[in-house]
Amino acid sequence: MDKIKFATVWLAGCSGCHMSFLDLDEFLIDLAGLVDVVFSPVGTDLKEYPEGVDVCLVEGAIANEENLELALEIRRKTKTLISFGDCAVTANVPAMRNMMGNKTAEPVLERGYIELADENPHFPNAPGIVPELLDRVLPVHEVIPIDIFMPGCPPSADRIRATLEPLLQGKTPEMVGREMIKFG
Amino acid sequence: MAVNTLTIDGKEIAIEAGKTILDAAKEAGVPIPTLCHMEGVHDVGACRLCIVEAEGTPKLLPACVTAAAEGMVIHTQTEKLQNYRRMTVELIFAEGNHVCSICVANGNCELQDVAVEVGMDHSRFSYRFPDRGCDLSHSQFGIDHNRCIMCTRCVRVCDEVEGAHVWDVGSRGPDCFIVAGLDQPWGEVDACTSCGKCVDACPTGAIFHQGETTGEKEGDRGKMAFLTTAREKQQWTR
Ligand code: SF4
Ligand code: SF4
Ligand code: SF4
Ligand code: FES
Fold it and tell me: Pfam families under this entry (chain A) (predicted)?
């Protein structure tokens, strides 16, 4: 049997979910025997998301144009998409700027790059290189359909393993109970 | 003593007249999820988590404020109810700003508990992200309106158990919020005795002890029932 094509993607998150993934410790070695890691910020050095991915963990909310484009692309090219962690599932901390209303990009940049700058205050401006912030931050499933939700900030390594193991055997994990779906 | 006999999930149960369906379910050992209900204060039917189905009526009944009547046939776990309960919890999450990862109640929150209980792994409703504040004017406690689910347990406990009536509900609809005194900063309300009962009563991280860290917060849902029976029946231990 061909190895499962496995990917992980990092949108607007703190990378904590990926760190928790690395907490899988020796299971990572078993995993490496079962999957081909075809795209991942912690596992490959590839810039292009490939075709025909079987399983992908998506960390982070949709906060800028690049997140949005990548989300649409991974949905086109992936069989099973897993919303990985509270930022992906609820938009979590990145979405706290939404409390400022419907147009939050500008005040956020203003605060970060002008008000808090020690010297040389200016907006980052490199069209086509620095992606524009969206007005509001969204959970991933509000942009693309998601197959499995794995809440947690971050989900524990145990939860990640309990989600991946059935998938590797072609089964659907049961996301029920405190161990699998508690937020936070 | 007048008694009513009814069936809950197939179990026959006899209960004193005037008691609610929730009381009867408890008596029968049938668990029904609740949020706004708290032993020791009166029920208001605010959260609608305790809905049940009664044969012969198309309406879903809130078990905590519906009297158990003779001959009722009640179902508490139908697919329809489970579906609506999950929606209710999703709506509560979508309605406020529940960022659990930075909440003092994370891991010790009744809203999280019911989310797990109803199997909620995400919300199908868009989050509203209302602009709400925090009041830290009290010397010992604080209220974070972002985490308030309007269960009014604090309002009832302060009024009915402590007798201070510091809390009330202000405004309407999606704008309603918990007010201290006449919508004053909590710290300026003379009626507050700083007893901390509202802190114990709050099911979420909305009312908390200042300086408390996540994990230290422990809700004590049974305390109010203890205090009322202690007063009424002179039982001072639990
Ligand atoms: S869910 Fe938590 S750990 Fe994961 S990316 Fe978001 S903030 Fe970081
Ligand atoms: S009150 Fe409960 S549900 Fe709300 S943010 Fe805090 S832990 Fe999460
Ligand atoms: S502050 Fe707490 S106890 Fe009071 S209504 Fe809000 S959630 Fe309920
Ligand atoms: S517990 Fe009955 S409506 Fe809240």
Answer: Oxidored_q6
Render the burial of A102-114: b for 16+ CB within 10 Å, e for the rest.
eebbeeeeeeeee
**Is the confidence at residue A168, as pLDDT, over 80?**
yes
From chain A, the residues in CB contact with B144 under 8 A are none
Domains defined along chain A, listed by start: 4-99+133-181 (3.40.50.700)
Residue B202 in contact with ligand 3 by CB distance below 6 A: yes
Residue of A139, A146, A184 with shortest CB distance to B101: A184
Quick one: which of B40, B9, B71 has its CA closest to B238? B40
Q: What pLDDT score does B230 carry?
A: 81
Give the separation between CA B145 and CA A182, rounded to whole angstroms: 22
Cα dist. B154→B146, B169, B186 in Å?
15, 10, 13
Query: Does pLDDT of A90 surpass 70?
Result: yes
Give contacts of B107 with chain A, Cβ < 8 Å.
182, 184
- Judged by CB atoms closer than 8 Å, whether chains meet at A83 and B93 is answered as no
pLDDT for position B218 = 77
How high is the pLDDT of residue B19?
97
Q: Outline which parts of chain B fall under CATH 3.30.70.20.
A: 97-233
User: Does residue B71 carry a pLDDT above 90?
Assistant: yes
Interface pTM (ipTM) of the complex? 0.94
CB contact under 8 Å between B127 and A90, yes or no, is yes
| Tally of CA atoms within 13 A in the half-sphere of B15 that contains its CB | 24
Distances (CA, A) of B70 to B3, B15, B18, B26, B65: 8, 9, 11, 17, 16
Strands B3-8 and B11-16 turn out to be: antiparallel
Name the 3-class secondary structure at B130: coil
Tokens 């999950």 correspond to B86
pLDDT at A1 over 70: no
Report the DSSP beta bridge partners of residue A53. Answer: A78
pLDDT in tens, B123-133: 999 999 999 99
CATH code of B3-77, in short, is 3.10.20.740
Which residue ranges does chain B devote to CATH 3.10.20.740?
3-77
Fold category of B97-233 in CATH: Alpha-Beta Plaits (3.30.70)
Q: What is the pTM of this model?
A: 0.94
Which residues on neighbouring strands pair with residue B144, listed in sequence order? B134
Nearest C-alpha in A relative to B123: A90
Q: A137 pLDDT exceeds 70?
A: yes
Give, for A135, the enclosing helix (H) or strand (E).
Answer: strand A133-138
